[in-house]
Amino acid sequence: MKISIFGLGYVGSVTAACLAETGHEVWGVDVSADKVAMVNAGKSPVIEPRVEEMMSRAIQRGMLRATTDPRAAVAATELTLVCVGTPSLPNGSTDLSAMLDVSGQIGAALAEKSSRHCVVFRSTVPPGTVRRTLIPAVERASRRSVDRDFDVCMHPEFLREGTAVKDFYDPPFIVIGEATASGGDLVARMYDGLAAPIERTTYEVAELLKYSCNAFHALKVAFANEMGTLAKSLGVDGHRVMQLFALDKKLNVSPAYLKPGFAFGGSCLPKDLRLLMYAARQNDLALPLLGSIMESNRLHLERTLQRILATGEKRIGMLGLSFKVGTDDLRESPSVALIEVLIGKGFQVKIYDPDVMLARIFGSNKRFIEKEIPHISSLMSSDLKEVIEESGVIVVSKPSPEFQEALIAHAGDRLVYDLARVSLNGVPARYEGICW
Ligand SMILES: NC(=O)c1ccc[n+]([C@@H]2O[C@H](COP(=O)([O-])OP(=O)(O)OC[C@H]3O[C@@H](n4cnc5c(N)ncnc54)[C@H](O)[C@@H]3O)[C@@H](O)[C@H]2O)c1
Questions:
Q1: CATH of the domain at 9
Q2: CA distances from 32 to 65, 79, 107 (A)
Q3: Does residue 3 contact residue 80 with C-beta atoms inside 8 Å?
Q4: 397 closest CA partner among 338, 332, 328
Q5: Does residue 98 line the site of ligand 1, with CB under 6 A?
């Protein structure tokens, strides 16, 4: 393929060297005449293992050239990767000036080009930027329409400095945000021969995914550091703790607990977080990340409550009472906390939870239910259809096929407020997810 790359910094230089090495014909573009001259001399503008040797080879073979002329680069290629910087402004927002400059330059070049072109934004930009800011800039300058006249993709970059070439050839995945199959197909074709899975999605998912990944990486570092700090002050080997922690690929280093949904609860998580904070206080340690988790959870519950209050509906049907499917354990269940506030505010609440119904009759939780939450126990019903039909809003707090079937059959035009992602695709008619 013939590919132009705008921005010859870390991402652009590595990408140019790797794509040229793979057999593509690459044009590098930068505003810095020095960087352009370096690339044309076979020297890398960035210090990164293997990049200089690959660039030098590509220049000798005529597979790579650099220029300060955006028009020439766009005219000579079928696809443009935009890899210019998107630094922070003092208020935390993103400086998009280089992205806007480049979008205008590409648009102006497209105005003079007859064959179809694909513009691929690789730089990290806030969700909505491609659709609302960059595409209009290209359209204005080209006087052409996206999708009809040219393709646009949002294709986030996941390489890490220091291991960038290795990461290029062995990425965790290749993510393509697209609006047209022709654009996505072309981007995917650049990677023919690479084993990585290709995930195709919308612009906005691709944009936010990049921030989610970086936030999670930062969270992991801070978590390990706070656990290590606490371990050290307790005289425990924190490295051994985290090494064993990472061996658990089922719950710890895995997709478990990573679906947006309702607040956590139960008999262990809140209790054990409290102990960690107690131990930190005893040792005069500030561990703000660990210390913020309960507050984050409390706010999540509060948002749920506010949303239910905002419906204006006084009859609430609650499907699910224990904190997760298959347990009757009600200790620190966020559903119990939610219901207690609703009852306190005079709402009529009806509850259906088969796991807890059984516990009311036999289980070890019978005592807890009778002693601690008799006011809630009395609101329970064994008739799911009746709970749905006698409510104005139905709140679903556990994923259960039984709930899903009953909602489809009986919810009618009642609002189903889903905390558990039980019901999808607009069935029933009025459906809202807690964080989707
Ligand atoms: N560095 C990384 O490890 C990394 C990894 C993943 C994603 N990203 C993202 O990729 C983007 C680029 O990052 P980077 O570290 O390569 O940036 P960088 O600052 O190293 O390079 C940006 C390059 O763009 C050039 N440039 C600026 N305006 C230009 C214009 N109008 N035309 C042509 N070139 C222009 C600059 O001269 C510079 O060479 C950012 O959005 C960043 O967040 C970076």
A1: 3.40.50.720
A2: 14, 22, 20
A3: yes
A4: 338
A5: yes
- What average pLDDT values come out for the chain (436 residues) when binned by 10 residues? 98 98 98 98 96 97 98 98 98 98 98 97 98 98 98 97 96 97 98 96 98 98 98 98 98 97 93 98 98 98 97 96 86 92 96 85 76 88 96 94 91 94 72 93
Whole-model pTM above 0.85? yes
- Best mutation site among 39, 46, 84 for ligand 1 pocket (most ligand atoms within 8 Å of CB): 84
Dig out the tokens for 311 from the structure. Answer: 């419906």
For 56-94, the DSSP string reads HHHHHHTSEEEES-HHHHHHH-SEEEE----PBPTTS-B
User: Where do the H-state alpha helices sit in 311-348?
Assistant: 334-344
Domain boundary among 154, 183, 201: 201
**Token reading at 145:** 């329409």
For residue 232, is it within any domain?
A: no
The ligand 1 atom at the shortest distance from the C-alpha of residue 105 is 31
Residue 347: give the domain boundaries: 298-433
CA dist 355 and 357 (Å) reads: 6
Q: Does 181 lie in the same domain as 65?
A: yes
Tokens of 187: 């981007």
The 3-state DSSP class for residue 174 equals strand
68: its two tokens: 């300060």
Q: Which two tokens stand for residue 409?
A: 């059959």
For residue 217, tell me if it sits in a domain.
no
Which ligand 1 atom minimizes the distance to the CA of 122? 10
Domain boundary among 201, 225, 252: 201
Looking at the 3D structure of the chain, how many domains does it have? 2
156 and 30 in a single domain? The answer is yes
Give Cβ neighbours of residue 124 (< 8 Å, ≥ 6 apart). 86, 156, 157, 207, 210, 211, 214
Q: Is the CB of 9 under 6 A from ligand 1?
A: yes
In a domain, 212, yes or no: no
Q: From the candidates 83, 153, 268, 435, give the one annotated as an active-site residue.
A: 268
The answer to whether residue 270 is domain-embedded is: no
Considering the domain architecture, whether residues 56 and 191 belong to the same structural domain is answered as yes
